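User: Predict the complex.
Assistant: Input components as received:
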Amino acid sequence: MKEQHSVIGKSVPKIDGRVKVTGQAKYTGDLKLSNMLVGKILTSPHAHAKILNIDTSQAEQLPGVKAVITHKDVPDLKYGISPARWDENIFCIDKVLFVGDKVAAVAAIDEEIVYKALALIKVDYEELPAVFDPLEALEEGAPLLHESFAGNVNTEIHQNFGDVEKAFSEAYHVRTDQFVGQRTYQCPIEPHSAISVWEGGKLTVYSSTQSPHYFQYYIARQFGLKMGDVRVIKPYMGGGFGGKLEPTGLEFAGAALAMKTGRPVKMFYDRHEMFAHNRGRHKQIMKITTGVDKNGKIIGVHADFIMDGGAYTSLGVATAYYAGAMLPLTYEYENYKFDMIRAYTNLPACGAQRGHGHPQPRYAFECHLDMVAEDLGMDPLELRMRNARQPNTITPNDFKINSCEMEACLEKAKELSGWQEKKESLPSGKGIGVAVGSFVSGAGYPIYRTNLPQASAVIKVNEDGTSATLYTGAVDIGQGSDTVLCQMAAEAMGFTYEQMKIVAADTETTPHDFGAYASRQTLMSGAAVKQAGEEVYQQLLEMASMMLKTDFRDLVCCLGMISSKTNPEVTITFAEVAREFFVRKGPLVGKGSYTPPKLGGTFKGAPVGTSPAYSFCAQVSQVDIDEETGEINVEEVWDVHDCGTVINPSLVQAQVHGALFMGVGEAVWEEVLFDDKGKIVNANLGEYRLPTALDMPKVTTDLVFGDELEPAGPWGVKEVGEGATIPTMGCYSNAIYDAMGVRVYSLPLSYEKVWRALKEKREQEQQG
Amino acid sequence: MQAVQDKEGIKRYLITLHVNGDSYTRVVKANTLLVNVLRDDLDLTGTKKGCELGDCGSCTVLLEGKPVNSCMVLAVEADGREILTIEGLAQNEKLDQIQEAFVDNAAVQCGYCSSGMIMSAKALLTSNPDPTEQEVREAIAGNLCRCTGYVNIVKAILSCRKSEEGSE
């Protein structure tokens, strides 16, 4: 069912490509405002300590310092991105909960003076026992972080669908395995920064944010301002990956400093502070049990997880639910039990990182399923094929799946990789593995409870009709939403991409949109944009029919040219008609908004994981392992996606590459490490070991399409950006096992761990 | 190098930088970084700061034709020397071939690494007009990108090889 499109489906160059390659694009940290001060936050050197006294007097006396603030100077209202657990203060009041917790802030005339002033703030602490391990944190008598959260339990989930115990008792084979993930950090290359301007009782914040809306909402709430008096603007942005979705503290501290000094204040984190603020991926401890019948059909799954949340909630309530909610997306089974505890520890808070909550459980599940397949003597790809979800099905946790090409993804990956012959013929040391993934195309419900539409858009056609501007609250953080939304606008209007302009992600000049997270914008913002474009189209054709004296139903507009379906002699340009429209009726404007249908079940936590549509993917990778060193060389990866209708093929490919790359890093190298005092020991990109151009494997990507378009998305679109992160870790682990017969049960699958596993295997073989 | 001492006894140095073909004279401290002079004093913010530790390569500029992390170079070290930044690459509205290739190959996502990446590519292609893929990867190994997996960046740089001329 292929529709003909003239603008979407084309690899047009990115709308911001040119300004980014010339260096003209201004990111938040590049902006300079008149009379601007520089601000920084003083953070805690201790993982857990009482604040006895803060003396700012020396810092205040330093020439060039304009303000020093602590908790006494700001509202004591607790905040957080997740309204279920507001547990943070702008500055710590009684005690600090991790190395890097926020204590005070300074604004001064330049950076050097700011650093000097920070060193002059004297904070007396009384150190308290700290806890860094989630299992220890949950033990009786463990140091308690938050008075209101007994036992350091931040979130506890017990969900039960069908009857898992019965399924296990009836199963042909039941197996349990345990895997451990790691803390990773998003590492956008652009550091966080925010510039706050306080003028006449109104606040403007330029921020490197994935969601101007949530920032506006929380800043207004924190300072008791009307949302209309807070403007948040996102300049060009250097990546986010989830780490810039929630307020970072820079906005609050900056706003307070701007209010106090009456001058614009630029706040920023350096690379070390970014790691310390963190909000990266949670480390999960994942026990997983599966029962299968003798044909390998899954009949029940129990996921029993614990996650290290760090010192605050951040987006962790959602992460905790997502961890279990998304496991049933890819395979069909009716009995499912999910238990989870998110524990507080005295480490930086974890939040949402690309693939939110799902990549580690998926790693565990995909490794575990390979082990189940081996127990059954079955090809692991075949086991997946037998269980692959089908379109128009409902998961045990009440997610409605419309389009779903899980089976076709596996089939294609099998074919592209030459799975069958490789499985039999690869030499020792080389191996091949498979894993799958799935992700939401936008979260069904916003982060805080509201009946605002998910997305809205306005398109204004220029007076002479030669250009049109799309106004959208959607947030381009590098993924290319400005480009694809302009393509969608032009398609819906019968216009050309080249004549589109965009104003985006500014709470004052653009209509509301929740922003860049949960892979939501192509579907949700796109739906609003399509509606706005269609409204322009309708008005334009009505005007054209008056001008041409023909029935408007006989007219069609494509690529800026209006023509008659029946009389090829009748044509008129979009521009002529749009100009005439302006003369007769005023501005030619179209508007649209999008609210998803009611989604999901009624049980506790049912909204998390709901989505209008789901993407699916399958990956096969081939590795070569050095038996002497454990070094993992990934030779090639075949990545196949069901991401619905494609708006811009080259941007889809680019998303897949980037997501795979993040998966590669997390699979093999990346981990945030701490010393025994809770200090990060590798808070820089070198020692954290962000992969380089030399580390990226050869990748072949392909897309599969079903017979039916996804009904929930405009033109049938779905997500790709996050889902593609998900299969890689499990896929590599399975390939390593295929190559060497050793299983690494924790992430990252480092060379050392592979080497140790090989050594252990050799020793066992010698003893045996 | 001419130096003056302020009231606190801190020396300031008079330096002249030749940036993108023009000369700029500025007074800097001994510890002032080249990247900060470029960005703060000359408003050449196309050169980005991503880590200030020499890890990410976002601040890569060409110093006498060689790619350097400008956060690892003192401004006084650059006195009297030729510096090329991303702003100096396009000539009279015409983009450099590498810049064009980055746009055409979807090698730009967030764009924060692009300036440094393009400067490293420029240095490579100037000294080695026909690099192998491995040589390209090595040349940009000091430029970190979190968005692209380097796939389209490598493709873009390879498309600028001398041997690719006229192949389109």
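Helices of chain B lie at 34-41, 97-104, 114-127, 133-139, 151-158.
Let me know if you want any component modeled separately.
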